[in-house]
């Protein structure tokens, strides 16, 4: 079952064709990674999901809502069911950790009391390994801590889909591994749908149930992670070969790395 659907989607900026007749259904309750070289439309795809960009042709459906043509109230209702982790966490440095995480609740959950909001913030910070940090200044957080707080804010409204825009961007290898593990743990704990835009192919293999690869405006690979890694499509093989070396077992076959 698909919670997000791209149906014949095309998008160009002047002569630059970014997406060409894209058909893609992202499965519910799974982690889908969108990969491909820079400039191949990964971030454009993400912006279509939230309705920030409208396709030149085709439809983008989120929870059945056409994110380009539905009435504004329906698009807004669909957006409230989405959470998003931005590249740098997009935290407000003038606010504390707790205030950052609470921000969506203050503006979009007026039915909650202050005590209920505090409890929800504490719960989500605990889930991302940042318990007791509500009073900390965000300006003093490390890159990995900013990502964790950003993730707590992304899930504080308890969305059904969480979008990750380059979650490993700017992180050292050890911190990047920790964020990958956090994504795996969050999916297990929350049971929601994750969509991950990433340049980090090794991390992608660790977290993704499915992989979609974009190249030159086209969807050149789509399917379960193991299937895409064994793709015979030349451009897919070249791209993965330059970015990923899988460990080989005694049988001489490459195996997917395991987390946890």
Characterization of the model:
The protein is an alpha/beta fold and 260 residues long. The protein has a domain at 1-81 and 195-260: Rossmann fold, CATH 3.40.50.300. It is 37% helix and 25% strand. The chain has 9 helices and 10 strands. It has helices at 42-49, 72-79, 97-108, 114-127, 143-155, 173-190, 201-207, 225-229, 234-243, and strands at residues 2-13, 16-27, 31-35, 57-62, 65-66, 82-85, 161-165, 193-197, 210-215, 218-224. The strands form 2 sheets. It has a 6-stranded mixed beta sheet, with helices on both faces. A 4-stranded antiparallel beta sheet has the order 2-1-4-5. Helix 3 runs parallel beside helix 5 (143-155). Residues 246-260 have low confidence and may be disordered.
Task: Provide the fold topology.
Blueprint: E1 2-13, E2 16-27, E3 31-35, H1 42-49, E4 57-62, E5 65-66, H2 72-79, E6 82-85, H3 97-108, H4 114-127, H5 143-155, E7 161-165, H6 173-190, E8 193-197, H7 201-207, E9 210-215, E10 218-224, H8 225-229, H9 234-243
Parallel strand pairs: 3-8, 3-9, 6-7, 7-8
Antiparallel strand pairs: 1-2, 1-4, 4-5, 9-10
Helix pairs in contact: 3-4, 3-5, 4-5, 5-6, 6-7
Q: What is the structure about, briefly put?
A:
It contains 9 helices and 10 strands. The chain is α/β, with parallel strands linked by helices and 260 residues long.
Features:
260 residues; alpha/beta; six-stranded mixed sheet; Rossmann fold; 37% helix; 10 strands; single chain; disordered C terminus; four-stranded antiparallel sheet
CATH class bucket of the domain at 1-81 and 195-260: Alpha Beta
User: Helicity level, as a percent range?
Assistant: 25-40%
Structure summary, number of beta strands: 10
Compute the average pLDDT: 88
Secondary structure tally, helices: 9
Q: Report strand order across the widest sheet.
A: 6-7-8-3-9-10
CATH topology of the domain at 1-81 and 195-260: Rossmann fold
């Amino acid at each position: 079952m698909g919670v997000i659907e791209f149906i014949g989607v095309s998008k160009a900026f002047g002569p630059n064709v970014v997406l060409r007749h894209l058909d893609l259904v992202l499965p519910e309750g799974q982690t889908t990674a969108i990969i491909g070289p820079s400039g191949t439309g990964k971030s454009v795809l993400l912006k279509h999901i939230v309705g920030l960009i409208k396709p030149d042709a085709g439809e983008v459906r989120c929870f059945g809502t056409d994110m380009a043509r539905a009435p504004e109230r329906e698009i807004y209702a669909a957006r409230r069911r989405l959470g998003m982790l931005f590249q740098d966490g997009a935290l407000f440095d003038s606010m504390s950790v707790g205030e950052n995480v609470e921000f969506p609740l203050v503006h979009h959950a007026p039915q909650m009391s202050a005590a209920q909001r505090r409890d929800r913030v504490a719960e989500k910070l605990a889930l991302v390994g940042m318990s007791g940090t509500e009073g900390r200044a965000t300006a003093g957080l490390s890159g990995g801590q900013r990502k964790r707080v950003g993730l707590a804010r992304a899930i504080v409204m308890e969305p059904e889909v969480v979008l990750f825009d380059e979650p490993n961007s700017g992180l050292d290898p050890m911190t990047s591994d920790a964020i990958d593990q956090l994504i795996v743990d969050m999916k297990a704990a929350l049971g929601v749908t994750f969509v991950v835009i990433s340049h980090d192919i090794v991390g992608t293999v660790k977290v993704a149930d499915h992989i979609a690869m974009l190249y030159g405006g086209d969807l050149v690979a789509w399917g379960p992670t193991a299937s895409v890694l064994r793709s015979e499509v030349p451009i897919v093989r070249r791209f993965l070969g330059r970015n990923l070396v899988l460990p080989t077992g005694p049988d001489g076959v490459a195996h997917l790395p395991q987390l946890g």
